[in-house]
Queue: 2 jobs
Job 1
Amino acid sequence: MAHIRLEDISLSFPVLHGNSRSLKKTLLARAKSTMTAKTGAVGGRMRVSGNSTDVVEVQALINVSFTISEGERVGLVGHNGAGKSTLLRVLAGIYETGEGLLDIEGDTHALIDPSAGMNRELTGRENIQLFACRMGMSRMAALELEQDVETFSDLGAFFDLPVRLYSSGMSVRLGFALATVPRPRILLMDEWFMAGDQKFQDKAKARLEGMVDAAEILVVTSHALTVLREWCTRIIWMESGEIRMDGPTDDVLDAYEAAVALTPA
Ligand SMILES: Nc1ncnc2c1ncn2[C@@H]1O[C@H](COP(=O)(O)OP(=O)(O)OP(=O)(O)O)[C@@H](O)[C@H]1O
């Protein structure tokens, strides 16, 4: 049975090296003032590193613990810099954490960066062929993949031009078409899937739904609360690196929306 179990996971990023006392003082004071208005907070907590007084670090995750079981569709919400993407990257194995316990049963696939693994000097078609080669696909399967991605991304003549010539929306079309091919047991998704023009978004939603249905566990981060209400059975509300609330979708999103409404614009 697929599951994710986290116990006391913390992660900090060093953001300032050096012994300039005034700069450190200013930075920490400003960080403190943005933290005091709880729901209006931005970013993780800043502190002087425990190991070195010359390093200021931002605590992106602080003692995060939860268990996600098979069948759960979990949404991550929270202010900018609350730690949602960092948490997703920890689950995807992109960031390693020294402390705590991370126990994941089941293969994961992360839809985090639409251009991940793309060679921008190669054409869209060549990138697909390279992907098929890396995955050890048969000639027939590789051809099917190429046709599927070409049809879905709908890039016309641009499919045979180098990716460096694509607009950001065109890169998303190609990256999205390719990234949504695997059928993992645990699907991790950042909100970039909302990118692209309206016509593409409708098509993308239908393709994503197929992928989400096939997954045993979904963890998705998004500021689009209507999407989360539609897709998720449970919401984890992050605030400055910590879990503020974890529970059924409507309970948490109602509380979150009420808190956001109280925050001064
Ligand atoms: N690579 C990095 N180096 C330094 N600090 C980072 C890095 N990645 C994230 N952070 C910091 O960690 C904190 C959490 O960032 P994260 O990207 O996880 O937030 P988020 O909740 O996904 O925000 P948003 O909704 O704006 O995407 C922020 O304060 C951010 O500045």
Job 2
Amino acid sequence: MVRASVLATEGKTLMRHTLARIAVIISHLDLQVYPSRLAREVQNIAASFCAVAEIRVVDLPISESLAYARNAEQSGEIDVFVCAGATGAFLQKNLTTPVVLMKNGTNDLMHAMFEAVQHSTGIALLSYRQSNLELDYTERLWKIAFKHFQYDTLAEVRARVSSLRECGCEVIIGSSMVTEVAAGAGMKGVLLSSARSIRQAFEDAMAQVRLQRLESSQRHHINAIVQHLADGVAALDETGKIQAANEVFAGFFKTASASLIGSHINDVAPELELHKYLKTGTPPGGCMVSARQRTLLVNAYPLSNEPEHDGTVIICQDTNALQRADRQIRSGARRRDFRATHCLTEIAGESKAMQYLVKLASVYARTDSTILLLGASGTGKEMFAQGIHNEGARANAPFVAVNCAALPESLLESELFGYEDGAFSGSRRGGKPGLFELAHTGSIFLDEIGDMPLALQTRLLRVLQEREVMRLGGTHTTCVDVRVIAATHHNLLKQIAKGIFREDLYYRLNILQLNLPPLIERLEDLPYLCHKIMESIVRRLKLRDSPKEMIAMLLPYFYKYHWPGNVRELENMLERAVIYFANMNDPLFREQEGNFIDLVFGHGAMAADEEESTEQRRTVLSAHTRRELTQAVDICAGNFSAAAKLLGISRSTLYRRLKSESSNT
Ligand SMILES: Nc1ncnc2c1ncn2[C@@H]1O[C@H](COP(=O)(O)OP(=O)(O)OP(=O)(O)O)[C@@H](O)[C@H]1O
């Protein structure tokens, strides 16, 4: 039963949040004088703390003290209890909320003596357990010899009071309980506590609350950090009981985090097999554990560096999330051009050979095996490589193309494999990842592999075998998950015979093969190729429409050409043709020696094989059909000079031919 009232207080807050909540418990036996003197004193002093604390003074039977305190503790309404003597010691043992003891000092004894001597010189002091009162000093000061006894229990108090009465003692100084027993025995009880010791107890309680709130705010911060971690974190005590765990950890083991607290780790997560560690105190390094359809990377660390094993922190990481993060980091570091832009559907060709190759490439795209693309320059090897990458499972990952013939050996090595900080003079600070690392999870296209220096072939072979790279100047390897597509215009078997290409590398690369035929072997693809290429030129040059007549006119020449530069050459020719065709009436071209066909076929190509090309050109030019001649006139809107220029003949020759063609028909 709570007899004394609550001292509600107003005023400024002590801490950032609320007033300190203090309960002072004064226990009594069968209270004869109500309210007890101590309670009254405490209430008076509590009033002076009203600006900083809400102090509840509770005067209740000793048998109810613990129940009351527990109740208040459970409802979380009290930050700290203040109590004296035996009850204080008892509550300290049984509560988790701090209990500040009202301690009596010599000053209290002086005050008590002052009151006691008013009644009698037969004075005794009863104190709970050992006190640090300066008894000799007090006796000398008051010139009174008084008796002093210590007690542990209420029974001892009762026995001592009754024996003191029989010895003629009239005044007993002690706690509120002692004074009550004395009063019950018909003696004078003098309270040992003074206003000063009560005030000191409140100061101690305030300091305690301040400390508590500081700790709680720190705990709150740490908890917020731990809760926001992407990893599952749990703290265990030395026996393996979970003291704290975040939601992610709870989620890994499909349970609510609150229900984990107090459970044993072996019951919650037997998969982790932490019992081995908990016994030895040796933390396991990162080990992979399968738990509830996930693979976790688990690390455990001792809570302190002390030799005594007093707890463990476990950190669990979802390997899927790690891989995703890894991919993100790598793609963040990826250059924008590490993308494949072509698809297999863009590869133009109506010939059986091309249609078969595109289908085969699409089958290859569904695998992860290494591919070797063979074919002369400009046959579309890179286009196929990009198409295969884009049609496969790695489409969203990087496509890294590297021309092995374009860089000097040392540069190619650092480009491919990267380097560590300070690997060579002039190297970038912090090192640089190689193209293999940047292609991680995607594809690497090793173009012109036949031109790779032998020393690098050896390093490349090791990477292909081990699937891991070591940067130049590095000491550790990094795993790379890369699909390799290599290409060359060389005959690698001949290169092997000459000793300039490693046979073992050839067999590593030549798992799946695509052999792209030169354009000369599939001239039937020309119309479709021209059409497709023109579409992209029109788009790129922002033309109004595709000059179909021009293509119709050029095609007969194209069929007769030998195409050493394959589709790339065709692309170049068509682009040139479009530009010349659109500017045919420009004086610059009108005054040009030669003619449209000459310009389209390009002097460079002609010069490469002068004899053959001049001869070919002659045959080509003499082969105009009547349809081509009239078509040229139509295209040039009846302008015979322009039509002659377009055909590469003089105006008079055009007239003559048209005449002779018409007489032949
Ligand atoms: N079948 C095709 N359909 C459409 N365009 C093609 C085709 N084949 C090649 N090309 C085009 O021809 C040009 C050359 O192709 P690509 O670079 O793929 O050839 P390559 O064999 O890799 O050449 P190199 O060996 O010289 O590197 C590219 O612009 C490409 O778009």
